[in-house]
Structure formats: structure tokens, C-alpha cells
Amino acid sequence: KSADFYHRYPEDIAMMKELGLQVFRFSIAWSRVFPNGPEDLCQAGLDYYSDMIDKLKEAGIIPFFDLFHCDLPYWVIEKGGILNPEFIDWFATYAEAVFKQLGNKVDYWSTVNEPSINCMASYAYGANAPFHTDMGEAIQACHNMILAHYRAIRIYKELGCTGKIGAVIHMEPVYAWTADPKDVEAADHKQAFYTGWWLDPMLKGHYPKSLMDYPYLVEKLPSRYQEELDELFVPCDYMGINYYNPGFAKYVDDGNLYYETMYDDTLPRDDYGFISYPQGLFDTLMYLKNTYPGTDIFITENGYGKKKWGNLQEEREDDYRIRYMREHLRELSRACEAGAPVKGYFHWTIMDTNELYAGGYNYIFGLTQINYETLERIPRKSWYYYQQIIKQRMVE
């Protein structure tokens, strides 16, 4: 079962208009455009998205599209996935086909959403398919993904598309476990590895210089890694940031990156496992403002996951989500006042959805409730709260 947005997007777009949404972020499924290989373009797939874009614009809603949001076509997986160097060419072929037909119909494009999910989590930490635990594979996958990202941006610019193109990463502000200088340094290292590993090449054209003294990482990169970055680098027009929780690090002499990830059990968590820490959003935006000055920022995801308990009426009374949204938007407002160049905020998510891998349909993230038996859409209490925020353009 699913929300069946595939068939019901006209009525869902009507609900978005009623809510007052100004921008809708959505992803294109690569497998709908090239279902069987890089030579098998499916025009019907592109026509589907073209119609969706038209209906969004008719409703006065700006489309914001991801090229890749975790869903590799199966033919890519069979050929080695992101580890295969040909992935770069396959992704470029896909991007070119999409941009030629839809490029100027969409104002904002993202090449990839949270590449760590398909690179680090899949190849280093064994959390996602194909469930490998090889840092060398993970680093190669990251490098291929960055080069594919560069290729897509180059194609977009060369075709003369007039919108903005960037990427979306998951970001955690990393805090030192104690005030010990070694823990502070460990937190800096984790920040560089967790987020700088993507932000630096996407915005500056190189990997974090603070990490390049670590053989544990450098020896796993291709010998010509910097030349390959230099040959293709094009900076993003903006960065999308998905913020859910903070991170913590403590120094450990492990001979590799010299930090250990820590977990603060004193802070509140949602049922999905995310620590609720609104100030972390402010700290994230200040970090971006100071480290990557002049870069426009979108908060592309921020939301609260609640375990379903089966009472549809009670599940619509989501005061917990209203509190979460209010406190995070307050911190966002504070960051804007402090000069953070934030251009937009997207709550995750407009309706209940299938969360990746183990999450499935077991968690409630949506402002709109989906009755999976009838597919009825029912606004939650938070839907009306968000409607007022959009209308008033302020948070109390």
C-alpha cells in the first residue's frame, strides 16, 4: 500500500494550494525515465513529470525537483551501482535527457538528495543496501557521486537552463562531548568528514583539507582524485540542508579519524530516533554562513517522526509536531536575523510517506494523514498551524 501520489497528484496539488504552499519539492524516479538501461529512454515517464509540473504551476506553486533521491534503477544495481565508474556517464545521460525536456520548466533543481545514504551508509556502515562495510568502497562511491553531480551541473549550464541547480545533504552540527581540546578537535574532524566531505567539493572543488593528512581516507581515493575534481568542478548555485538532529564526538586514538560518535540520552527524541534540538538548526546555519559565505541555503527537510499506533482520530491531534515546528522555525528566524542567507524552508513532509528501508509506513511524518485503506487525505492539526504560518509569514 502507498499514498498513491502517482495517480492522485492533481488532488494533492489542490490540497497544497489550499495549504498555501509556494514551492513543492519532489524527486524524479530515474527508473521511470530509463527503465532498462542508458539507451532506453521512456518518453512516457518524462511526459508524466511534465504534466505534474504544469499542474503545479497552474496552482501557483514553484516546482523544486531532485534528480536522484535514493532510488537507483535496478539495472544500475546489477552493473555494480555507484561503485562502477560508468555510473558517472549513466547519470549524465539521465540528467541530460531530463534537462532537455524539463530543464526550463523547473526553477530549482537538485542533483542528489543525501548522497551519504547511498554511499557511506550503503558501503561503509552496512545500514542500507547493499549492506557492505568497506570504507574503501564507500570513498570510491562518494567520489563517483561527486563527479556525477559535477557532470549534471555542467550539462544544465551548457544547455542554457535558466533556473538554479544545487544539491541536498543531511547535516548535523557536531558538538564536542566535553570541553577537552582533544574532544573539540574530534568534533571538528567529524564535522569535516560528515558534512564537509560533501560541501567542500560541491562548493569549493576539493575535499576538506583538514582530512587530507589522514592516510585512512586519502589512500582510498583514486590517485588522480584532485585532477578529476579540477577537470569537472562547477559550484552549486545553492545548498539544500536536511536538518533533523545534532551529533556529538569524543576523541579516541583509533589510528584512523580519531573520533568516536557519542549519543546524548538526556535530550528528547522522536520515535524515529532523531534528537529534537532546535538550537542545532541555528548553529547549522551559522556554520554554513561563516564557512561557505555567499552560498544561498534552503532548509529542504525538517520534521518529526511518530510511531503509528492505529487510532486515526488520535493520530490527527499532533500537538507534538506543532511544538517541534514552532521551535525550529523560531531558530530559523533567529538565524535569518543574524544574516544567514536562507531562501526557503520545507517541512518534511506534506503527507505520510514510505520512509527509507526499515521505516516503511510505520512512522507518521505528514501534515496530511493518509488512510491507507481508503486513501483518504485528512489534514492534521499541524496542517492548519502551518497554513497560518504561511499566511502570516511569521511564527509566534
Properties at a glance:
396 residues, alpha/beta, three-stranded mixed β-sheet, 15 helices, 43% helix
What does this structure look like?
- With 396 residues, this protein is of the alpha/beta class.
- It contains 15 helices and 14 strands.
- It has helices at residues 5-19, 30-33, 43-58, 74-78, 87-102, 115-118, 120-123, 135-158, 181-203, 215-218, 225-232, 279-291, 312-315, 319-337, 381-392; strands at residues 23-27, 62-66, 108-113, 164-170, 174-176, 238-242, 247-250, 260-262, 296-301, 306-307, 342-345, 363-364, 368-371, 376-379.
- It has a seven-stranded parallel sheet.
- A hairpin with a 4-residue loop joins strand 13 (368-371) and strand 14.
- Helix 8 packs parallel to helix 11 and helix 14 (319-337) runs parallel beside helix 15 (381-392).
- The longest helix is centred in the middle third of the chain and has 24 residues, at 135-158.
- The protein is globular, with a radius of gyration of 21 Å.
- The protein starts with a helix and ends with a helix.
- The model has no long low-confidence stretch (mean pLDDT 96).
State the gist of this model:
This protein is of the alpha/beta class and 396 residues long. The chain has 15 helices and 14 strands.
Distance between the termini: 38 Å
Rg (C-alpha, Å): 21 Å
| Fraction of residues in helix | 40-55%
On the 0 to 100 scale, the average pLDDT is: 96
Shape: globular
- Number of continuous helical runs: 15
Number of E-type strands: 14
- Give the low-confidence spans: none
Strand order of the largest sheet: 1-2-3-4-6-9-11
- Output the structural class: alpha/beta
Strand content: 15-25%
Biggest beta sheet attributes: 7 strands, parallel
N to C succession of SSEs = HEHHEHHEHHHEEHHHEEEHEEHHEEEEH
